[in-house]
């Protein structure tokens, strides 16, 4: 079996913080306080090997927020490149160990720690999965095949 890359784009558009007025409000942004909604996503194939998350954030000041997939804390500030800063966009890359993602239903949630106030735009979950590498026979092949 061959492997192929796959992904799921989860849109949050949520403001985490202790004060709804501490950051500018953008159209479609919802103040949620301490944690994002529990996002559900489904993997139709069986994930193989390691994966990673791409988090798109704004105005994040702290590295130690908790990122959970299937109730497993996958955040580790020492292991990923990061950018911090008031009123700056940031893209975080979070590596995922094997066996964090599973075939079928999965969940994702981000939990705020400390006094940080920031926006979570979206998270892209990336993984590899097995695919059947049997070539599909085209129209001409079916027309002129023997048998």
Question: How would you describe what is shown here?
Answer:
There is one protein chain. With 147 residues, the chain is mainly beta. 3% of the residues lie in helices and 49% in strands. The protein contains one helix and nine strands. The chain has a five-stranded mixed β-sheet, with no helix packed on it. Strands 3-8-5-6 form a four-stranded antiparallel β-sheet, with no helix packed on it. 20% of the residues are buried.
User: What composes the largest sheet?
Assistant: 5 strands, mixed
Query: Uncertain regions: pLDDT < 50 for 5+ in a row?
Result: none
Determine Rg (CA atoms, Å): 20 Å
Large-scale geometry? elongated
For the largest sheet, list the strands in their spatial order. 2-1-9-4-7
Please report which band the strand proportion falls in: under 5%, 5-15%, 15-25%, 25-35%, 35-45% or over 45%: over 45%
Overall pLDDT, averaged?
87
Span between termini:
27 Å
Tally the helices.
1
Element-by-element helix/strand order = EEEEEEEEEH
What keywords describe this structure?
five-stranded mixed sheet; 147 residues; 3% helix; 9 strands; mainly beta; 1 helix; single chain; four-stranded antiparallel sheet
Give me the secondary-structure topology.
Layout: E1 2-16, E2 30-33, E3 39-43, E4 47-58, E5 66-69, E6 72-73, E7 89-96, E8 104-111, E9 118-131, H1 139-143
């Amino acid at each position: 079996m061959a492997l192929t890359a796959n992904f799921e784009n989860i849109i949050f558009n949520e403001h985490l913080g202790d004060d709804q007025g501490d950051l500018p409000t953008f159209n479609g942004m919802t103040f949620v306080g301490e944690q994002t909604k529990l996002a559900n996503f489904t993997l139709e194939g069986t994930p193989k090997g390691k994966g990673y998350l791409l988090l798109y954030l704004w105005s994040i000041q702290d590295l130690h927020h908790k990122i959970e997939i299937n109730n497993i804390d996958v955040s580790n500030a020492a292991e990923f490149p990061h950018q911090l800063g008031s009123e700056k966009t940031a893209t975080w890359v979070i590596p995922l160990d094997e066996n964090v993602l599973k075939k079928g239903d999965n969940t994702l949630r981000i939990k705020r720690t400390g006094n940080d106030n920031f926006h979570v735009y979206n998270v892209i979950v990336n993984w590899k999965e097995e695919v059947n590498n049997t070539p599909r026979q085209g129209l001409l092949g079916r027309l002129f095949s023997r048998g």
